[in-house]
Design goal:
Elements (H helix, E strand, L loop, with lengths): L1 H24 L2 H8 L12 E6 L5 E9 L2 E9 L3 H14 L4 H7 L2 H8 L7 H21 L12
Antiparallel strand pairs: 1-2, 2-3
Helix pairs in contact: 2-3, 3-5, 3-6, 5-6
Bound molecules: FE2/S2 (inorganic) cluster.
């Protein structure tokens, strides 16, 4: 019993040490999104779909559902780093409930970085990846609009 308590105290102390290190590097928002990612997953038969490979070689996919010109659902998948999960979460949060035009105007790496309170320089490209993937999904929506049959020919 006491051995279990020691082990738990050790694990708690270790976790606190890790969190202290993270707080030195990342903002509170980044840590919160890292612990609680948003909008992760795929949407079947999306109205907009974007997939981009970033400079690091990792990829991100974005899926959009658009109802009456409003983004009703926006999800993402990535095989990238923890920061790409954070950036994808923020990008999809920014886009949700916006009109197509509003999302196009607002979603950028700069906006994602601003909302996250910044990222270390070597992780800025992860925000770029999220922004480009979302813009790709918006472009795909625009391309398919009025010809929904085109969706069936894209590779997801
Ligand atoms: Fe590749 Fe972050 S997305 S390192």
């Amino acid at each position: 019993m006491s051995e279990n308590k020691d082990l738990k105290a050790y694990a708690d102390a270790l976790q606190e040490q890790i969190m202290q290190q993270m707080r030195k590097v990342y903002s509170a928002a980044v840590i919160e999104y890292w612990q609680n990612p948003r909008n992760v997953g795929k949407i079947d038969n999306p109205d907009g779909y974007g997939k981009v490979k970033g400079v690091c070689g990792d990829t991100m996919e974005i899926f959009l559902k658009i109802d009456k010109n409003k983004i009703s659902e926006c999800t993402f998948m990535t095989d990238g780093c923890g920061t790409s999960m954070v950036a994808g979460s923020m990008a999809t949060e920014i886009a949700k409930n916006k009109t197509f035009t509003e999302a196009l105007a607002i979603v950028s790496a700069e906006e994602i970085l601003k909302q996250l309170g910044g990222l270390p320089q070597d992780s800025v490209h992860c925000a770029q990846l999220a922004s480009e993937s979302l813009r790709g999904a918006l472009a795909d929506y625009l391309h398919n609009r009025g010809s929904s049959w085109k969706k069936h020919y894209r590779k997801i």
